[in-house]
Amino acid sequence: MPASMPACRMSDVARRPTRRPRTTAQVLVTVGLVMLAVLIAVALFGPSLAPYNPTRTSPASLDGPTLAHWLGTDSIGRDVLSRLIVGGRATLLITFVAVAIALAAGLILGLTSGYIGGAVDLVIMRALDVVFAFPVFLLAIAVVAALGPTLPNLILTIAVVYTPTMARVVRGPVLSVKRWDHVEAARSVGIGEFTIAVRHVLPLVISPVLVQTSLTLANTIFTVTALSFLGLGPPPPDPNWGSMLAEARQFMELAPLTVIGPSLAIVFASLTFIVLANGLRDVLDVAGR
């Protein structure tokens, strides 16, 4: 390096940001929110939007797309588009409720573990490590198979599987934030530990939690549909994307839309939360924090 090159220029190069520009991140968040609004609208108004009863059969078996059936019919004459719209309701319901429970449990366990520390931290983390040691999908299969493939059991299983991840994401920042000056100042004026943890520590660790929640929603979509594909999802006749794939896979050469439709729906739902997570990561400057 030439001796005349200022040291500040080298430091500027070293500190050059590698994440996307803020405007691009905002566009990603906007796109993600629009996609999320579409998913929520389908989940809330699915039965009203579906052109046919998703469980009604007809003699038109494995028909191709027509003006009456835009995506054709399945092996027993049910309208694929109607089943696709209504099936998203069950998949998204399980996903949102399960991740909400995992988020609540992760916030409580992570905040308690990181803020109190010591023996409490050790016990909570070791207990979560037991769950974390098993592959997510295999653990979900084992729990659902043991409890039964009902809607509450499926939600509980997904929540249990993803709670350790949420708790770890919360605990890490808490360990750092609880040593900051404003926390010590609050403690010095007599504010209770519970109030400090909730009002002065928790708000500062929300950014990475929001990003992880979006990623967990994307992973949960795949987990729920995979369990349904294996026959461990909500029981028939109510449709869901995973069971639609399982029923249509043997007829994919005769009626490819019966497989392409739910596959694209699963990809769209997962991509929604991935785009949202990437945008939130840069808008909230998680790496910088």
Highlighted features:
289 residues, mainly alpha, MetI-like fold
Short account of what is shown:
The chain has helices spanning 7-14, 22-49, 80-116, 118-132, 136-147, 151-177, 181-188, 193-201, 206-229, 241-248, 257-283. The protein is mainly alpha-helical. It has a single domain (25-52, 62-284), classed as MetI-like (MetI-like fold), CATH 1.10.3720.10.
Shape call: elongated
Number of separate domains: 1
The number of strands is 0
State the major sheet: none
- Name the structural class: mainly alpha
Can you write the helix and strand succession as a string?
HHHHHHHHHHH
CA radius of gyration is 24 Å
Number of helices: 11
**CATH topology tier name:** MetI-like fold
User: What's the rounded overall pLDDT mean?
Assistant: 84
Strand residues, percent: under 5%
Residue share in helix: over 70%
- Beginning-to-end CA distance, first to last residue: 32 Å
> In terms of per-residue confidence, which ranges show pLDDT below 50 for 5 or more consecutive residues?
1-18
- Classified by CATH, the class is Mainly Alpha
Instruction: Write the CATH homologous superfamily.
Output: MetI-like
